[in-house]
Amino acid sequence: MTTVRIPAGWPATEAEARAVQDELRERVVLDEPGPPPGSGHVTGVDVAYDDERDVVAAAAVVLDAATLDVVAESTAIGRISFPYVPGLLAFREIPTVLAALDALPCPPGLVVCDGYGLAHPRRFGLACHLGVLTGLPTIGVAKNPFTFTYDDPAPTRGSSAPLLAGDEEVGRALRTRDAVKPVFVSVGHRVTLPNACAHTLALTPEYRLPETTRRADALCRRVLKEVSGTRA
DNA sequence: GCGACAG
DNA sequence: ATCTTGTCGC
């Protein structure tokens, strides 16, 4: 497990963070299909916090896309680098997530984020941000529609409906289990929306959330508990 | 101006 | 995100 420092020049104010988003947004690539589902590696990343002790734990878990078996794992511990501000989540998570990705012993392949990509007030959510910084193909799969609207998809797994910001489709509400609340898929970097949905379905044979984020979530919570328990 | 708002 | 018991179900 690696320890992270907050990068020099990391935004300290909301205005600075928005300026960074405006700059990096130009580098998002939307015209690549992305890797095909079911082959190669798929990596889930997630983060857990202990605001009391100013600790953040990140995990990256690499799965074999065909079998969903765990191929590799890594974790990183850092200090909280930004307060939670809706629309600026990436500045809170990215330094530690980058460290966890760097610590992996193999290429991550497609990275699945717990949150949004283009489905973002400024069209530059966590998945876009992470994609631009790493050059990796990324998608976002979120549990909530945030500020966006959607019509309920048909009740069968695989059904979907546009996730809308007014008239603009920023992602899809995708049903991953029959009659269960959909997840909210959006493109991050170098992946197409239909392909992002296909990956999400390939990662949800049993549960609503992708196996990648379930594994990463469990791992980062575990390490957070370990470090918090170690230092009273 | 006020409220809502990924994790 | 995080705080939290029991409970229903495979």
From TrEMBL:
Cofactor(s) needed by this chain: Mg(2+)
Main location: cytoplasm
Record field: catalytic activity: Endonucleolytic cleavage at apurinic or apyrimidinic sites to products with a 5'-phosphate
UniProt subcellular location: Cytoplasm
Keywords, ordered alphabetically: Cytoplasm, DNA damage, DNA repair, Endonuclease, Hydrolase, Magnesium, Metal-binding, Nuclease
UniProt keyword Secreted, yes or no: no
EC number, UniProt record: 3.1.21.7
Record site: Interaction with target DNA: 84
Taxonomic superkingdom: Bacteria
Functional summary from the UniProt entry: DNA repair enzyme involved in the repair of deaminated bases. Selectively cleaves double-stranded DNA at the second phosphodiester bond 3' to a deoxyinosine leaving behind the intact lesion on the nicked DNA.
The name this protein goes by in its record: Endonuclease V
Species, as recorded: Streptomyces sp. NBC_00180
Gene this protein is translated from: nfi
